[in-house]
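User: I'm putting together notes for a lab meeting next week and I want to include a structural view of one of the chains we've been expressing. I don't have a solved structure, so I'd like a prediction I can at least talk through. The sequence is below, exactly as it appears in our construct file.
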Amino acid sequence: MRRRTTRSLIAALAAMLALVVTACGSKDPSAAAGDKVIKIGAWYPLTGALASFGIPERAGVDAYFKSVNARGGVNGRKIDWIVKDNANDPQQTVQIARRLVDQDGVAAIVATNGTSQTQATFPFVLEQSKVPVLNTLGGDASWYEPPRDGLFGLQTLYEDQAAALGDWVMRDGAKRVLVVHSDPAAFVNVAKVIGPAARKTDPSAQVKRLSVKYQTTDYSPVISKVKAAKPDAVVLILTAAETASYLKEARLQGVTAPVYGYAPVAAQATLTLGGKAAEGLKALQLVKSPNDDDPAIKEFRTAMQKYERGHPADFITLWGWEAAKAFVEIAKTIHGPVTSESLTRAYQNARAVDTGVGPVLNYGDGRHLGTRDLQKVVVRNGRWESQGDFFTPPTRD
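Assistant: Thanks for the context. Below is the predicted structure for the 397-residue chain, given as structure tokens.
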């Protein structure tokens, strides 16, 4: 009897030890929680100079995730989205990434914000921890050419936006184009693409660039230089506030050349600050206009009113909504635990993902940026309106 009792005790202890080792060795946070939640994280500039972007984008993501959880979650799993303020600082973002992965046990970083901030986390998040970064706002060509393991995006690159702008102004009949851009390298690199793209469409195109000190508020000297250049069209690679300053001063000085801008120009802040001077402004966007009447946009406006009443249903909140919806549509395809590994596989296999508010997304083993498509928008009667359908810009040289 004693031998049998001893053997039984040893077997029981071995089984318990195996369970403990398995639990401690598992990197799957959802498995430890019974796979009842999908725990994901993000960082945003919720304080500081760029909080005006971070706060509304977070609200758009929150509105969609709340609406999904209210309907029972993703295949019965509720979304636990943990958000931390990085104040737009790369060093803070790295520390936040460590807390999200090591302490909170997130399966992925989803719908976050910032190019340099997010890139600073890649060595730890993507390479060391093998946690995917999905649907972030920001990035450049080096992120996806060649593709990085675990990194999947849906924002058409600024370089492709510039190529689209160069083609657009030429097709609208311009011959002499002036690109007005802020002086930091990130703006300069985008502005440089416009000339070659314009000449690809029309070899006779004359494209010049005018650099402006970042966050300039007095645009009187700038507009004087624009008048002297006598352009047929002006392309702005500026922030929304700078764009508004340009438009108001151009109106005061009688500059009537049509104005085009990339996605950051197409913001509600441009209209609020620019007023009547913004009428007729043309720009590119990553999503449809939040003022459109199609069902997917109406769903967005209704959810913002219900779940995030204090935030307007504008382009920035719609960026967040699109990123969250794309994540949910892809996560739905996972049968079994939602882990870092299963999310990465799901994105690699994701095809024809249609959020209804942005371009259709297609991913693959060699394609980690879901789209290059863009939407044209124009200011009519004081609000942004979509112009035509999503289109693919010409390839960059």
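A couple of points you could mention at the meeting. Residues 115 and 138 are 5 Å apart (CA to CA). The mean pLDDT is 91.

User: Perfect, that's what I needed.
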